[in-house]
């Protein structure tokens, strides 16, 4: 029996196409939320911190739910898991339209939407890919899935802005909620679960986590992933408003988010390709260092459409390129059996970073009228994460090695 990759319920190409479509829709809707910052805060009288807190709670709820969603998908199947998540995600987005204040918004846009994102996210899609794709091709396929999610960001940003301009933010959210329901039929192609390899124990959740956390390289990977979430969430939610503050139009903000998504298609595919040929930890260290450099250069020059789009292109190449490399390392450490759960733990760290980035951006803006302090913190964190990834050892965790049959 081949324990590294199991035959999927549908042809592999169909599974990959369906998974990529799920990733594109789910990520496309989520990354459009920053475009709603100005119209929703203006109409509802929310402070920038109040809106930022709802988005921060969304990222934190996503992160907390992700390991459990991954474990559930590992045990009962990815298709069923993703379908349930899509329904919850759509419900949360629709309920945002009738959320009159920051407290209710924290529940609808924050908790409900965040949990729905976790259960239907491309992290769960990767669990399906991880069990169906041979180990030597996983980094590449993870890169393809990440690129698909980035295409969703590129496609949904101008579409969402067009809906807001034409119909208002409430109707725009309803249309996005309807789009999320398309994930449910697509999830059928992802049905199935990861079987336990011959000779390896079927470990309980807490025992699996304890053994994984004892692997030093995994600890460094998890802690360093915090910085990725900090960068992405802060820029995704606050960048459009920052550009308007600098005198540019809301359309510039939407195209900036779209350009990030477009160039991340290239970055994700390149990371997935290189991850099968070069040490993944060195690639990750390079990505975090280049992010810090890109933010520093962006702050050196006066903000204009040219600098905004150039920064977006640079960050786009580096945006989610961490994901196939991080997922690839987790799969290398522990195998495909626990990929959904243990990548979910790493992603929890990512989402704690997202919570801090989104909330701190709103708080600092309300206190100082500027985002400058958060930009500078992003540079320092990028350099710290680059240094943290260098000692990672690209080898399997001994406690997860196959036992003799």
In CATH terms, the superfamily is: MFS general substrate transporter like domains
Given as residue ranges, the uncertain stretches (5+ residues, pLDDT < 50) are: 1-5
Indicate the overall shape.
Answer: globular
Query: What gap, in angstroms, lies between the N and C termini?
Result: 12 Å
Say how many strands there are.
0
Q: What can be said about the biggest beta sheet?
A: none
Number of domains: 1
Number of helical elements: 17
CATH topology: Growth Hormone, Chain: A
Strand percentage lies at under 5%
Quaternary arrangement of the chains shown?
A: single chain
Estimate the helix proportion, in percent.
Answer: over 70%
Pfam families: MFS_1
GO molecular function, one term: transmembrane transporter activity
Domain Major facilitator superfamily (MFS) profile: 12-396
InterPro entries: MFS, MFS_dom, MFS_trans_sf, Proton-linked_MCT
């Amino acid at each position: 029996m081949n324990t590294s990759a199991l035959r999927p319920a549908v042809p592999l190409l169909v599974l990959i196409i369906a998974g990529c479509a799920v990733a594109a829709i789910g990520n496309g809707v989520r990354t459009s939320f920053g475009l709603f910052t100005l119209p929703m805060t203006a109409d509802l009288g929310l402070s920038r911190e109040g809106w930022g807190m709802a988005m921060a709670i969304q990222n934190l709820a996503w992160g907390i739910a992700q390991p459990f969603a991954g474990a559930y998908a590992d045990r009962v199947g990815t298709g069923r898991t993703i379908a349930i998540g899509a329904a919850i995600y759509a419900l949360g987005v629709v309920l945002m339209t009738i959320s009159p204040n920051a407290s209710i918004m924290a529940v609808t846009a924050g908790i409900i939407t965040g949990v729905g994102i976790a259960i239907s996210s491309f992290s769960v899609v990767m669990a399906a890919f991880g069990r169906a794709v041979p180990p030597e091709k996983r980094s590449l396929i993870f890169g393809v899935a990440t690129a698909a999610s980035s295409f969703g960001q590129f496609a949904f940003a101008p579409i969402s802005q067009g809906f807001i301009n034409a119909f208002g933010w409430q109707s725009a959210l309803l249309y996005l909620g309807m789009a999320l329901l398309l994930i449910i039929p697509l999830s059928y192609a992802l049905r199935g679960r990861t079987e336990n390899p011959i000779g390896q124990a079927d470990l309980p959740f807490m025992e699996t986590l304890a053994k994984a956390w004892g692997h030093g390289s995994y600890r460094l990977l998890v802690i360093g992933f915090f910085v990725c979430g900090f960068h992405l969430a802060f820029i995704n939610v606050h960048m459009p408003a920052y550009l308007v503050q600098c005198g540019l139009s809301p359309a510039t903000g939407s195209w900036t988010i779209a350009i990030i998504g477009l160039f991340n298609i290239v970055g994700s595919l390149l990371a997935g390709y290189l991850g099968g040929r070069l040490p993944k930890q060195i690639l990750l260290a390079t990505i975090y260092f280049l992010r810090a450099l890109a933010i520093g250069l962006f702050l050196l020059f006066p903000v204009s459409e040219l600098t905004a789009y150039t920064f977006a292109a640079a960050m786009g190449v580096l945006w989610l390129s961490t994901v196939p490399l991080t997922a690839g390392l987790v799969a290398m450490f522990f195998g495909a059996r626990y990929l959904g759960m243990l990548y979910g733990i790493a992603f929890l760290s990512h989402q704690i970073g997202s919570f801090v980035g989104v909330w701190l951006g709103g708080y600092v803006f309300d206190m100082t009228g500027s985002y400058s302090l958060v930009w500078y913190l992003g540079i320092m964190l990028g350099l710290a994460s680059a240094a943290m990834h260098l000692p990672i050892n690209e080898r399997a965790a001994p406690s997860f090695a196959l036992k003799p049959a």
